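Researcher: Structure for this, please.
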Amino acid sequence: MSKKLLKMTKTIFIIVIVILFLFQCVLLYFGVSHLIGSLSFILVTVWIIYFIFKRILCLLKKEKYLANTRLFFGTVLVLWIITELFLRFAVCRYDSYSENKRLAFYISPYLAKETVSFSPWQKPLHVYHSNDSKVISCDEYEYDLITNSEGIRDKEIAEQKMNDEFRIIGLGDSFTEGRGAPSDSSWVKLLENRLQQVFADKKITTINAGISGSDPFFEYDLLQERLLKYEPDLVILALNMSDVEDVIVRGGTERFQDDGTIRYNDGPKWEWLYATSYIFRHIIHDVFGYDRLLLKPAERNIRQEQSIEKIFSCIKKFAQFGRLKKFELLVVFHPMLHEVLVKNFKYDKLIKKVRSETNINVLNLLDYYILEGKMSPETVLEYYWEKDQHHNSKGYELFAKGVYDSILSKRLIKQ
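Model: Predicted structure, C-alpha cell format:
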C-alpha cells in the first residue's frame, strides 16, 4: 500500500470516528446513547488523553518514552473495549429497558417522549400516532399493533351512544393495551365478551385506552381531553408498580408546563457516562448500590412514598371526575410477575389507604390470582411471558375474569 493511500485511509478513518463521536454527543444531549457511538466515544477519549500525554512528553523532551506510551494507551483501549463488549453482550444484566428490547439504543427514563400539543391551553397526551400500524416483536411473540384516530389500540368508536348501550373505558399501561397478545386477547376485549354473554339486553362496548408506558396522570388527561365524548358508564383504571416508578421519574401534575410541553424530573448529571459505558454501570450498581432509576436506596424509598401519595391524589381526582360526569370508577391493582412469585404486593399500603379513606371501588388482582386463579410460583409462567414479563393470552383471560367478577359483585352494571 502506497504512503499516499495509507495516509488517505487514516484520514478517512479519523473523520468517520470524529463524526460518530459528534453523533454520540448529540444523542447524549437528548438522553440517548448508541452502541457504535459509545465505542467511538471511548476511542476518541483515549486518543485525547494519549495526545495530551504525548504533548507533555515532548515539552519535557522525553520523546524516548513515546513508544511505551503508545503501547500503554493502545493496551488500555483494547482492554476497555473488550470489557465493554463483554459486559454488554455476555453479562447483559446492566441493560436498560430499551436495550432489553433488542434495541442498540439506551434511552433515558427521564426523557420526555409524549405527543406535544402546540396549543398552550391543551395538555400533551401520551398516545400513539393516529391510524398507525406497526409490528411489535420480541423473542417470545410478534403481532401487529393498529391504532384508531384517537391513537389507541382499538377500532373506531361512534361518538353517538345507543339507548341500550353500556360503555366501558379501560385505562392503563402496556398491560391494559395488551402487550404480548393480539388485540382481541387484551383483558379489555375479553371482558367485553364475558359481559355481553350475561347482559344480553344491552350492547356492551369497551374502549381499550391502554398505552404502553402510560401512568394515571396521562390517563386522566387522555380521558378528559379525548375519551369523555364517548360517554362512558364505567371507567376502569388499571395500576401496577411500574406506575410508581413512572411518577418518580415524571412527577405528577407538575410535569405539565404552561407552554403546552412536558418536563420530567432531572436525572443525575453523570447519566451521560452511564449511558455510554457498561463499566461505569457496573460500578454504579454493584459498588455504589444505585438502582435502575439511578437512585440510592434511601432516596428511592423517599421518592416512592411521595409517588404513592401522588397516585392516591390522582385516584381521588378520577373519583371526583366520575361523580361530576356520571360514570362509575373501578380501580384495579394488578401484580407484576415477581410480585406473584413472592406473594407480596408493594401496592398493599395504597390499596388499604384507598379502601379506608374513600368509597372507591377497588380490586386487588394479586389476591384474586392466588385465591381464585390458583396462581402459584410453579404455575406463574403459564400466565406471564418469562422474559418480557407481560401477560400472555391466558394471563389476560384471568385478568378479565377477575375484573368481570368484581363488576358483578359490586353491581356496577344495572340489570
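Researcher: Any notable elements?
Model: The chain is about 50% helix and 10% strand. The mean pLDDT is 90.
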